[in-house]
Amino acid sequence: MEVFDAIIIGSGHNGLICGSYLARMGMKVLVVERNNRIGGGLLTEQATLPGFHHNLHANFMMGLELTPYYTDLDLAGLGLELIFPDVQHGIAFPDGTALCIHRDPAKTAASIARFSRKDGDRYREIYEKFTLGTRKFITSSMFNCPLPPAEIAARLNGDLGEEVKSYNQMTMYESVERNFEEAHVRTLFKLWFHILALENDPGTGSFFPRVHSRMDRFALVKGGSVNLAKVLAERFKSFGGEIVQGDHVSEITHKNGKVTGIRLEDGHSIEARQAVVSTVDPPQTLRMVGDDGFGSRLSEKVRNFKPSPHAICTIHLALNEPPQYSAATFEPDINRAFNTLFGVADERQLEENFEATTRGEFPPVPMGNGACNTLFDPSYAPPGKHTAFWWPFVPYDLKDGGPNAWDAKRGEFTDRLLEVWRSYAPNLDKKNVLGTFLFTPRDTERSCINMIRGSHHVGAYSLDQIGYNRPTPELSHYRTPVEGVYLAGSGNHVGGSINGAAGYNAANVIADDLGLKKWWTPVPEPILA
Fold this sequence. Notes:
- By secondary structure, the protein is α+β, with helices and mostly antiparallel strands.
- The chain has a domain at 2-43 and 68-73 and 224-306 and 458-514: FAD/NAD(P)-binding domain (3-Layer(bba) Sandwich), CATH 3.50.50.
- It has helices at 13-24, 68-72, 105-113, 117-132, 135-142, 149-154, 158-165, 172-179, 183-195, 207-212, 226-238, 282-289, 291-294, 296-303, 347-358, 405-408, 410-424, 441-447, 501-514, and strands spanning 2-9, 29-33, 44-45, 54-55, 61-62, 82-83, 87-92, 98-102, 218-221, 242-245, 249-255, 258-264, 269-278, 311-312, 314-319, 339-342, 368-371, 386-394, 433-439, 485-487.
- Strands 7, 8, 14, 15, 16, 17, 18 and 19 form an 8-stranded mixed β-sheet that branches. Strands 1, 2, 10, 11, 12, 13 and 20 form a 7-stranded mixed β-sheet that branches. A 3-stranded antiparallel β-sheet has the order 5-9-6.
- Helix 3 (105-113) packs antiparallel against helix 4 and helix 8 (172-179) runs antiparallel to helix 9 (183-195).
- The protein is globular and about 65 Å long.
- The model has no long low-confidence stretch (mean pLDDT 94).
C-alpha cells in the first residue's frame, strides 16, 4: 500500500496551496484529483473556436497579490502575471447612462457625482475608511481562523472599529442604503454585492467593509486563469509534492477516531500517516467520512449546508471586435471597464429578477456581470480578435423541466442572452459574433462537483454560513471530530472565489496540531486599533 504523510482531496487552488505549505515542511504529500485536469475553478478552455481562450469559472482575481501565499510561494517568481485594469468596474443602464469605479478614487467619485455629488463625496469617505483603513484588518481576518462574533467585536477599537461593528446586524441592502441615496448608485452596489454571492439577509451587511477593502484590487491572470493553477502545481511539485489525476475518492478511512487514509472508487486504498485534507464541499466530505465519524448531531448540520439559492450561467463570445456599449456616449470609460455589469434598470427590477430566479423561472430581464479580457490581454484570442463573456443570474432548478432542461434549452437561452446583451452593445451582431458557448449551472457542477447545484461559491453566504458559522461553528477551524481529517475548501471561512484562505489557514492548523516548525511567518491576528 502507498503511504503518505498527508493526502489532499482536490487540486483546486486551496488544495495546492495547503499542499505546498505542508510539503515544504518536509511532509510527503499527495494531491488526488477526480478530473483529468488540475485547478478546480481555475479552468481556461478554447470553448468557442480554436485560439479563443475563455475562463469558464474564475476570472476576476480579487486582492490576490495581498494574500500571504502569493509572497510565501513566490508566485510572481514562477512567472504568474497579474493585470490590473485602471477602470475596475462599470455598469451600463438601459436609460443610456453608466458609471465606473476606477483604481483612482478621485475618478470614481467624479463618475458617481454625475448622479449625486453627495454620493460621490461619500465614496471618497468609504475609500479612506474601508478600502485603505480596514484593508490590513480584513486581510488578517481572512488569513486566520474565524473568530466568534463577540471576539471580533472586541478587536474592533476606536471610531472606525465602532463603525465597522455597526454593519454587523444589517442586511446587504441596508448597508448600501445607509451610504448612498441615488437610485443608479444604489443599484450598482446592490448588484455588485450580489455578484459576490451575498444574500440580502440580516448580518450580510458586515461584508460592506470587506468588499470595499478589495474593490480596487481586481486583476486578470495573463494567458488564462488556469495559469495560476499551473504555477501553484509547479510550486507544490518543487517541494516534493505529488499529484494524481482521474482518481475519485469514495471514502476517507478512519479507525478509533483517527484517520488512516483514503479509498478510491476503484477500490484502491492509500494510507495517510498524519492527515487527510478535504477541499470539497462539507456534505460531500461527510459522505466520505460517514456519520460515525462526525456523530449524528453534527452530521445533520452538515447535511443541511445550503447551496446558493441562485446560480449563474455564462455566455462566452468569440468576436471580431470588443463590445461597444451605447452608454459610452454618456460615460466613455464603460468601454474600458474590466468587470462590466448590465441588465438591470433599478433596485426594484433587481429584486424582481431575484424573486423570479427563486421561483425557478428564467429571469424576465437577465442581469449580471462579465468582461472582455482581450482589452487587457490580447493573448486570450488570435491577433486582432476578441473574447468576452457575461454571467447572468439564473436558477439551477428550472421551473419548467428542472436542471436537465439546461441541456435541452441551451440554444434558446443562448439566443435570449445574446439578445439582451446586444440591447446594451448593438455591435454584437452576426458580423461581429464568430462563435458562442453557453456554460450552464449544470455544467458548473459537472466541472466542479463541490459547486453543488451550480453554487459557484460553494454554499450560500447567509448569516448562518459565513465567518465562524461556515460550515458550522464546530468545523469552523478546519478540524473535524476525526483526528487528522481537516477541511480546507470554500465551504469553510472565507468562502468562495480565488482567495486561498481556507488552504492557507488549514495548513497553519495542521502545523500547529502536529507540532511542526513553520517555515513561513503567519499573518498576525486581526486587531483594528
